[in-house]
Amino acid sequence: MLPNPKKLLCVEPSSTQQAIVGGMVAQHGLEFVACGGEADALLLLEEQYSLMVVANELADGDSFQLIEAVRLSLETAMLPIAFVTGNEDRSLAKIAMRAGATEVFLRKDLRALNEFIGGYGSARENLAFSGRVLLVEDSDSHAEYVVHLCQVLGLDVDVCKNVKAASARYRPEKYQLVIIDVVLNDIQSGITLVRSIRQNHLNRQPILVMSGYDDLPRRLLALKSGADDFISKPFSPEEFVWRLHKVLRSYAGLDQMRGTPLAGQIVPIMEGQDFMSHLSPREREIAEKILEGLTDKEIARQLAISFWTVRSHIEQIFGKTGALNRRDLMARFIGK
User: Fold this and answer.
1) Which domains does the chain have, with CATH numbers?
2) What contacts 43, CB < 8 A, 6 or more positions away?
3) Which has the closest alpha carbon to 219: 138, 117, 327?
4) pLDDT tens for residues 164-176?
5) What's the pLDDT tens digit per position in 190-223?
6) Is-contact 56 84, C-beta < 8 A?
7) pTM for this model (two decimals)
8) Spatial contact of 224 and 191, defined as CB atoms under 8 Å apart
């Protein structure tokens, strides 16, 4: 289930604060839904939303527990969450971030909250994915796990256990996405298949590479060979769904840009341009870490910020630069 770009869920017991957030939501043309506590919010989350605002103190339940529940559900793992508090205690913000909040806002900082709502509510598209995935994975249990996650996004999956079988089955027009494990019970590694697809087929499909070995050389080899993204095993359901959503949305955006440009559409920065000048200081800092080959988790740890905050900034970096993925961002940087 993908997010609905026209609806915001506000979990806030104060009617005054609900009215303030509701006014912001109206400015951005979104539908406003509000409740006061955890139990009602969990019921309302059976519907689709583009983002969520959660107050620190709720009428019932616990705000941190609510945020964790949202992150643990496959259907809402990608939902941006603004945590709002009147308490300036830094430890409270850290707890909210660890629970899975995307950003933390003070009640008095209405402008920042309004920008957050506008950025996520207006920019996100409702892309309902369908089609087939080619999964190359020799572990039956892990293949079953990945198949389930793909089905959450509405994708059917064909599974192959080795490069030979996958090469025989692969057709560019048949698959919307290819997911490849690096280490297979085979002479050939998954990287061989990535290279073969990129060298022998003009039509491009997104390729996500998985590996139980999260080392920098292996990750860079996968990206240089043509993979669009890299995820280390074991991974959480929400991280996997986020990465699939990201690469699929990137290619959907590319297809749109191949046609007639829409009013207000972002024009990608061409290779050789100084794309760093288009980024905020924090975005430049994160972009430099990406170019070093660091994962989202490593970036979050080095900068002492939330994993979800890193993800949010990376989406903004890709949007501003026109890069489809990390590999494309690296190529643009090298081309400077």
Assistant:
1) 7-123 (3.40.50.2300), 131-251 (3.40.50.2300), 266-334 (1.10.10.10)
2) none
3) 327
4) 999 999 988 889 8
5) 999 999 998 887 667 889 999 887 667 777 888 8
6) yes
7) 0.52
8) no
